[in-house]
From TrEMBL:
<feature type="transmembrane region" description="Helical">
    <location>
        <begin position="73"/>
        <end position="91"/>
    </location>
</feature>
<dbReference type="InterPro" id="IPR052712">
    <property type="entry name" value="Acid_resist_chaperone_HdeD"/>
</dbReference>
<keyword id="KW-0472">Membrane</keyword>
<dbReference type="Pfam" id="PF03729">
    <property type="entry name" value="DUF308"/>
</dbReference>
<dbReference type="InterPro" id="IPR005325">
    <property type="entry name" value="DUF308_memb"/>
</dbReference>
<feature type="transmembrane region" description="Helical">
    <location>
        <begin position="156"/>
        <end position="178"/>
    </location>
</feature>
<feature type="transmembrane region" description="Helical">
    <location>
        <begin position="21"/>
        <end position="39"/>
    </location>
</feature>
<feature type="transmembrane region" description="Helical">
    <location>
        <begin position="45"/>
        <end position="66"/>
    </location>
</feature>
<keyword id="KW-0812">Transmembrane</keyword>
<feature type="transmembrane region" description="Helical">
    <location>
        <begin position="128"/>
        <end position="150"/>
    </location>
</feature>
<dbReference type="GO" id="GO:0005886">
    <property type="term" value="C:plasma membrane"/>
</dbReference>
<keyword id="KW-1133">Transmembrane helix</keyword>
<protein>
    <recommendedName>
        <fullName>HdeD family acid-resistance protein</fullName>
    </recommendedName>
</protein>
<feature type="transmembrane region" description="Helical">
    <location>
        <begin position="97"/>
        <end position="121"/>
    </location>
</feature>
Length: 188
């Protein structure tokens, strides 16, 4: 198992080194999106709820088309219609959707934070592992903050906390990209 993890780690780091420019460009874009979301948390949260609603609508339509085309049966058709209805509800009631998404976001941040911290220890000898650990810990902290202030947190939390998460994820990518660029430049 340890050899599999080190193979994954070395593959990840090798790809970051090969693509330092792309890594840095993506990190800056993610940082800017994080700043936008923090500056307009309600707009970001409502936009996210509406976007998820439309994704469900389009997914449900595709599922319904498939179900009818292949004669998948009534259960498949009902599930497709429920997906369309859920998406339509989210689009027409983004405030309620935002509250539901707040709970999901809290759980998501805690789980991803734990996995990011584990990943940081797996790449520990590499430069930037501390930033990955910090990113994971920030994610867990943000998830706990949302959970402890629900339902009030539903109004501001999605946009603000996703913004913070994006900012630190972008910062972590930037540190990996800059570290990889330094390694590449010293090898030339």
């Amino acid at each position: 198992m340890s050899q599999e993890l080190s193979a994954i780690d070395s593959t990840f780091l090798r790809e970051v080194k090969k693509n330092t420019g792309l890594t840095i460009a993506v990190s800056i874009l993610v940082i800017l999106m994080g700043i936008f979301a923090m500056g307009s948390p309600l707009v970001a949260g409502v936009s996210l709820a509406i976007a998820v609603g439309f994704i469900l609508i389009f997914s449900g339509i595709a599922q319904l088309f498939f179900s009818v085309k292949v004669r998948a049966g009534i259960v498949s058709i009902i599930l497709s219609i429920l997906t369309i209805i859920a998406g339509g509800y989210m689009v027409s009631n983004p405030g309620v959707a935002l509250a539901s998404m707040t709970i999901v976001l809290a759980i998501y941040l805690v789980i991803t934070g734990v996995f990011e911290a584990v990943m940081a220890f797996q790449i520990k000898p590499s430069k930037g592992w501390v930033w990955a650990l910090f990113n994971g810990l920030i994610s867990v902290l943000l998830g706990a903050m949302i959970w402890s202030q629900f339902p009030v947190s539903g109004v501001w939390s999605i946009g603000t906390l996703i913004g913070i998460k994006l900012f630190f994820t972008g910062w972590t990518l930037l540190m990996f990209g800059l570290s990889a660029r330094t390694v590449v430049n010293t090898q030339l």
